Amino acid sequence: MAAESGKKWVLTVTAQTPTNIAVIKYWGKRDEDLILPINDSISVTLDPDHLCTTTSVAVSPAFTHDRMWLNGKEVSLSGGRYQNCLRELRSRASDVEDEEKGIKITKKDWEKLHVHVVSYNNFPTAAGLASSAAGLACLVFSLAKLMNVKEDHSKLSAIARQGSGSACRSLYGGFVKWIMGKEENGSDSIAVQLADEKHWDDLVIIIAVVSSRQKETSSTSGMRDTVETSMLIKHRAKEVVPKRIIQMEEAIKNRDFPAFARLTCADSNQFHAVCLDTLPPIFYMNDTSHRQEPFFNSSFINVIVPHFYLPIISCVEKWNRHEETPQVAYTFDAGPNAVLISHNRKAAALLLQRLLFYFPPQSDTDLNSYVIGDKTILKDAGIHEMKDIEALAPPPEIKDTNLTQRHKGDVSYFICTRPGRGPVVLTDESRSLINPETGLPK
Amino acid sequence: MAAESGKKWVLTVTAQTPTNIAVIKYWGKRDEDLILPINDSISVTLDPDHLCTTTSVAVSPAFTHDRMWLNGKEVSLSGGRYQNCLRELRSRASDVEDEEKGIKITKKDWEKLHVHVVSYNNFPTAAGLASSAAGLACLVFSLAKLMNVKEDHSKLSAIARQGSGSACRSLYGGFVKWIMGKEENGSDSIAVQLADEKHWDDLVIIIAVVSSRQKETSSTSGMRDTVETSMLIKHRAKEVVPKRIIQMEEAIKNRDFPAFARLTCADSNQFHAVCLDTLPPIFYMNDTSHRQEPFFNSSFINVIVPHFYLPIISCVEKWNRHEETPQVAYTFDAGPNAVLISHNRKAAALLLQRLLFYFPPQSDTDLNSYVIGDKTILKDAGIHEMKDIEALAPPPEIKDTNLTQRHKGDVSYFICTRPGRGPVVLTDESRSLINPETGLPK
């Protein structure tokens, strides 16, 4: 296995992988094991400076089995989806040699060697911020580096896809398309980059996080129910999405914000529409606004966040109409957060004023923890301290301010971010999450 | 005009017309002036003992113009839809003779004579209980009787349709289909009876009324927006509804409650799904749970009632699943009320227990005004006084009672009713709403 296999060496790699938000949604699988979707989807990769997963992976002859720690807690790797990814990666591993450390691993050794995975999100897990997308993408990307897998990102995306569908889109920065593919074995169901993050760097993305206390809820059963019972999903997948994909690619290519915004909002609404067309209907939920027993024991079905979704949609639609051209697009995933994409910094500052007007923080909140990420947007919005939020006037597009409700405390915090880069290896040893001596989490 | 036209005679007719609830929904017009729909719909007529419009119409040579009073207030008849109905009826009027009163009106006289219309709903106007359906149907039916229009109910339904689309379905009792028709002039867009109210008289219908304080809001602009912007509505109208209509007719014919319930719930959810697929998205609303400014000045767009819709859907879905066969179907129109159709009296009593458990009245409410209509269901449910509601245990299908929320005060009242008869003329003069001397409201 190595020249000095008697020595307890540990070889590690650390990588950072972004999360992504779909602007043309993925909902519905044609193959549940391979995670093959019923339509193409398009996403924007979010800046990993604000939202990312960092994963360190290690291999050592001393490891007795594959182990994983997520956000400080050991979790099982025995799930079929993790196993699929590990198997695919091991079968593509190549020789690895580290002369300095005197390590030599042959292609064949990888079948017997065990790995440790230590992963950490810089944002709340399972708060609907695609933590599983970033997490699985990072697992696959870092293990591929460790194992010297020579496939390109596209091939890696097909492996990450088997861990979590939308993870395949986190293998690239900028604007990414997940091609549904036609092959039964899924080999052509891969992600490709449409444009990198510099192509359209005016965009500013603001995420309203409702609750970070939410439990992990799988969208798998919801998707299955929709595919089995909705009379509209097939039409969406076959007729609507293919046209929207072409239009969205064109909008991104031309940096055509009105078209981009129109398609993004329409597709978010249609995704929620097909959820509602499911039997039993699927709504999306928020712990904070109302706790409700799961519909059935078998699956935890989410419920709409009216205090949250509706004022945001209403705010955006009113403002866009008032300006006569879209300033901002909204999109809601299968979780309790809103993602708002603004045309540029100026629109983002105006948006943030509106969001802080409608969703002021609780009085004991620290402004510094209420708006995180790129805080320069906050400055552009003229908000320097809490009293600036209190002093915000209703947006000019509001006709009857008496009917305007403010929703204090409904939002946990806002994240200001932008389109960002794809996965990178972190060479700085101090960034590693694994103790190089023990092979355990630091 | 009459043998004694110098005498100020007043000739009146009084009729009562039921409201109806669609179980296969009407949403979307192909012709806005003629009110021609993009799909067939099916409704259940509700018992007029509990929900109906009573309308008295009068004609007199002393009347100087057409006038109408609705629920005690004079309203304008100048709207295009009223005018269409009046024109259609006048053109079909026949000779009328009342020898006793010495009145003789010829076919030609009707062009010059004016009418008074006095209408009264025994339920809240514009609370989403299809008051316009019952109202327009009653207007057309009573005027047709007054004017001796010799057309059958089907032809009258085509006239009522031009006043308010769903009004055409109120011309019959029991189960009614509105055939969309193919003709450009709308002559074949008529209602037909599928089965009368005795065909399936086990059914018990419970309506939860959320707010009777709501303003009249037209669904016209919402439908138009959906037809213009939804990518799913055409598929619904062309592919989904035609199949469901066949299945629903079959379910009604065979009194197949599981099929009836499945189709009813699925179609209600799909109707709300296409509303959500509209740009801007349409949600349905309730004044009580949150007031919100209309999205735009041009149209008042409603917003979902989560405190209300979701617990009801959740309650019904859980119970149906627990029983392994549907006990009850839910359907929500473009308004803030829920209509629940139970298989039989036994299921209705169990449903009412559940509804009263989840939606108890405010403590100062009188039980007698909280559950109205057929109160025998309340007795079957074992509820005799307010403390019986307080003593209700959570339904057995609830696993975790800690997570169960009760929504005190969210429902204004419940109406227990059943499928009912079509329009009738009330011959008892004391039921007339018009003073036979003055021709004005009593």
Automatic annotation (TrEMBL), chains A, B:
<keyword id="KW-0456">Lyase</keyword>
<dbReference type="InterPro" id="IPR036554">
    <property type="entry name" value="GHMP_kinase_C_sf"/>
</dbReference>
<comment type="similarity">
    <text>Belongs to the diphosphomevalonate decarboxylase family.</text>
</comment>
<comment type="function">
    <text>Performs the first committed step in the biosynthesis of isoprene-containing compounds such as sterols and terpenoids.</text>
</comment>
<keyword id="KW-0753">Steroid metabolism</keyword>
<keyword id="KW-0067">ATP-binding</keyword>
<dbReference type="Pfam" id="PF18376">
    <property type="entry name" value="MDD_C"/>
</dbReference>
<dbReference type="InterPro" id="IPR029765">
    <property type="entry name" value="Mev_diP_decarb"/>
</dbReference>
<feature type="domain" description="Mvd1 C-terminal">
    <location>
        <begin position="312"/>
        <end position="425"/>
    </location>
</feature>
<keyword id="KW-0443">Lipid metabolism</keyword>
<keyword id="KW-0444">Lipid biosynthesis</keyword>
<protein>
    <recommendedName>
        <fullName>Diphosphomevalonate decarboxylase</fullName>
        <ecNumber>4.1.1.33</ecNumber>
    </recommendedName>
</protein>
<dbReference type="InterPro" id="IPR020568">
    <property type="entry name" value="Ribosomal_Su5_D2-typ_SF"/>
</dbReference>
<keyword id="KW-1207">Sterol metabolism</keyword>
<dbReference type="InterPro" id="IPR053859">
    <property type="entry name" value="MVD-like_N"/>
</dbReference>
<keyword id="KW-0756">Sterol biosynthesis</keyword>
<dbReference type="Pfam" id="PF22700">
    <property type="entry name" value="MVD-like_N"/>
</dbReference>
<dbReference type="InterPro" id="IPR014721">
    <property type="entry name" value="Ribsml_uS5_D2-typ_fold_subgr"/>
</dbReference>
<dbReference type="InterPro" id="IPR005935">
    <property type="entry name" value="Mev_decarb"/>
</dbReference>
<feature type="domain" description="Diphosphomevalonate decarboxylase-like N-terminal">
    <location>
        <begin position="18"/>
        <end position="191"/>
    </location>
</feature>
<dbReference type="InterPro" id="IPR041431">
    <property type="entry name" value="Mvd1_C"/>
</dbReference>
<keyword id="KW-0752">Steroid biosynthesis</keyword>
<keyword id="KW-0547">Nucleotide-binding</keyword>
<feature type="domain" description="Mvd1 C-terminal">
    <location>
        <begin position="205"/>
        <end position="291"/>
    </location>
</feature>
